[in-house]
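Our preliminary data section would be incomplete without showing what the modeling component actually yields. Below, a chain of 304 amino acids is followed by its predicted structure, encoded as tokens that our downstream tools consume directly.
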Amino acid sequence: MRKSLLILLMTIPLAYAQDVKVTSGKVIRFANFKSQFVDARNVDVWLPDGYSEKQKYAVLYMHDGQMLFDPETTWNKQAWEVDRIAGKLMAENKTQKFIVVGIWNNNKKRHPEYFPQKPFETLDATQRKMVSDVLNKEHKIDIEFNPISDAYLKFLVTELKPFIDSHFSTSKKGEQTFISGSSMGGLISLYAICEYPKVFGGAACLSTHWTGIYRNNDNPIPDAFMAYLKTKLPNPKNHKIYFDYGDQTLDSLYDPSQKRANQIMMDKGFSSKNWMTKFFPGKDHSEAAWRERLDIPLQFLLER
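Predicted structure:
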């Protein structure tokens, strides 16, 4: 273990997350990680078996960090089980070596932090009020809705990433830095690679919540997202983007928007080399469903 990590262990509040059971590797929790841009939150760093300071690792940043590892600690007793799936892929030499940084969501601020801000700002006042009213009715927020995703991304890019790169043995290259999430986490992952194409080389967006709210009819949000993508998608020559969706529960809303996004991807020059959209009939909007297929985006983004 290099000197900087030893100093870190002595000076930063953290613990090996004894309450988080993993089947491979280990989780280091940085509790109450402070930011000047957003509220403090826990950050979990998963290191694979055999982690060595002598090797450089790709980094996968994942949203909703409290849902990634141990189902016994989550609100719905489901988890992505990233440790098991990632560990297996690396053991079978199907991906390059990587670590996972799980950024916990912030409960009632999850929707404001994950909702792409610039597309929202193109809506008129009446449309913004409609979005706010719907989200309040659905108890996703309890105040007027105003996205703070630009601030959230500043936290990731200017505070968290430098911290991770300075205290772990990571590759700092954009082509080995990835971001992933599901639902609203899928939206913010796509927004991140569009806003910071020099930082993130790939994004995995599972069950992307294109509607922003919970309906397709009388909803201006998908149009705003598509207009944004037409001008802000990153260069396909050095970026990879993965999408998927099912057709049950919330995922039943996504087909129209995903097909529009697919067309934009093709128009912008993305091909099977750097873009994948997968449809999973019969699959719903849950950690259990995302866990079943997580190996697909991991292999796509992190191929050797």
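The two ends are 25 Å apart (CA to CA). Residues 1-11 have pLDDT under 50 and may be disordered. Preliminary results of this kind motivate Aim 1 of the renewal.
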